[in-house]
């Protein structure tokens, strides 16, 4: 009888141990910091007068595709030259996934084909899903740095969209209790605050300065076009208070375009 109890106790302990090992492995993989992939961009930069702009990242990039012509028109009218804008993003993608998609030429979310075009500018939307999942600012900034470095290595000027004030709490209200518990645990593991997302913006700015990238990227602050976030009285968001509506994209595109126009005119002034 005692032997049977010992066997049962040992089996239970073994099962719990195996579960802990599995959970530990999954956590390590989930929060892993990707290594930088060094590639050589052999394609030659286009030699025509068309300005090329891509928009990559999360759902904001994915849903922008229907408004690409809008940004094209604004730029063409101001620069008096042809413009091509192409957007592709992945709904729910964290910054680590956005970086991985830069080397993906197979899946629908892959952006390698866009980068291989060697556009002049690349707009980046990343961070909302990192903040929601409590990935922590170190993980976020690490992968954002890799995204920027990849683009710069291809001669593409990155345009960093500062994280907007979306209704983060609405995301949790729509999720299951298990998902919310996972976020609570993630917050504890990564020391990421549950509701204060300003640190993501602050740490990204610090990383850009520390890596001496501030003179190599364009930064579009949310205060320039959407200072009040989802509570903006101009009605810029869909009913989920996470994604932009047509008016929201029009305001975003106008702000992004002003940065590109200033940069292009500055470059032309030196030529």
Q: What keyword list fits this structure?
A:
alpha/beta, 5 strands, single chain, globular
Structure write-up:
Helix content is 53%, strand content 10%. Strands 2-1-3-4-5 form a five-stranded parallel beta sheet. The protein has 271 residues and is of the alpha/beta class. The longest helix has 29 residues, at 2-30. It contains twelve helices and five strands. 32% of the residues are buried. It has helices at 2-30, 59-62, 68-79, 95-101, 112-116, 128-133, 137-153, 168-174, 177-190, 198-210, 222-225, 246-270; strands spanning 51-57, 83-89, 121-125, 157-161, 218-220.
Task: Give the SSE map.
Elements: H1 2-30, E1 51-57, H2 59-62, H3 68-79, E2 83-89, H4 95-101, H5 112-116, E3 121-125, H6 128-133, H7 137-153, E4 157-161, H8 168-174, H9 177-190, H10 198-210, E5 218-220, H11 222-225, H12 246-270
Parallel strand pairs: 1-2, 1-3, 3-4, 4-5
Short description:
By secondary structure, the chain is of the alpha/beta class. The chain has 12 helices and 5 strands.
